[in-house]
Amino acid sequence: MNNNFENDKKAWVIAVDMGYGHQRTAYPLRGLSPDGRVINANNYKGIPDSDKRFWRTTKSFYEFISRFRAIPIVGLTIFLFFDSFQRILKYYPKRDLSEPNFSGKLIFSSIKRGVGTDLIEQLKKSPLPIVTTFFTPAFMAEEHNYPNNIYCIICDADVARAWVSLDPKKSRIKYFVPNSWVRDRLKLYGVKHENIIYTGYPLPKENIGGENMEILKKDLGYRILNLDPNGKYQKLYSPLIRSYLGELPSMPNHPLTMMFSIGGAGAQAEIAIQIINSLAKKIKEKKIRFIISVGLRDNMRKYFQDHIKKHGLEIDGWVKIISGKNMEEYFAKFNEALRTTDILMTKPSELSFYTGLGIPIIIQPSIGSQEDFNRSWLTHIGSGVLQENPKYTDEWLLDLLSAGDLAEMAMQGFVETKALGTYNIEKIIRGYHYV
Fold it and tell me: Highest taxon of the source (predicted)?
């Protein structure tokens, strides 16, 4: 950490190395940091061994439970039991949900015993505002009397009570929220109105362009041509398309492309293999390009390489595996590939908000309560559809394309989602007003 750098227009951007979600959320905001890097609260230089053990236990448990869920009956039962501790309650009937739960009390007991003290004391040497994508560092900062603003980014469509302090009415943590659902949920938890800021989710600038969204709109124009091969959606909604995007280009600048994103725990690998099996003929005929995003897991990259070869396919321009040696390299490759991706298949993680780039989401089975709500949000705004049987992807995908349904989902994601979250958050940190 560069503790000698002081600038009131900068901030410490903090994430946790637990899956990809929190680091992906922080990545577009790295420019706010004095050295352009994201601090991982559970993996920074000099972290005490006691803190390492706290975070290691949390991360290992999450990954174990995510993988364990796939075991029939027993695995699902155990997963549901532990998921109940972080379950998001039904919104209706509206009622006071400010009473702290067991998991929240457990986290604060660890913080009161000293977990996180070292990190916060280091940050105090140059006390810039804190922007964190996980609630625990925010709690640490508040509990250890951090002398500047503390901001926490919500990276799901709804959140459990654990994201809020034990006494929310006295807490000074401010929340950047991605949608109206989580904004209203925080009110039920007792968070003060002035501490909830509806910014939108921080999407990558390289996929947006400037605040006029010139890159996003250009890419979406090409995408609609691929997603509506029969022109049905374009014929029905041409005034809407023109009002947002202007005139569409005459032809696509890339082949129809689907990306399948594997989560950090790797729980969706078998689904991806079934989809490759189903689409193998169309890939060979160069009717669809297939991208598999595996993150940092080298074993997963090799796993897919072997299966791709078994089906007579080659890893070339029509089948591609995206991976990286570190998060920065991986996110850069992923975001670049998204520009010519027409359909994103993913479990409903933080990637649900990437529908704001005008990308329809094929929703894989969810893992955990927060992903259930992300799934509901996607279908609510009309930009996602539940995955059908992966063995017959070549059939149901063709039906969605022929009807223009995926083009409609792409436009719905763009229209219904606040895509300028990154710019809005930067404006707040730098003292500017935004609408």
Answer: Bacteria
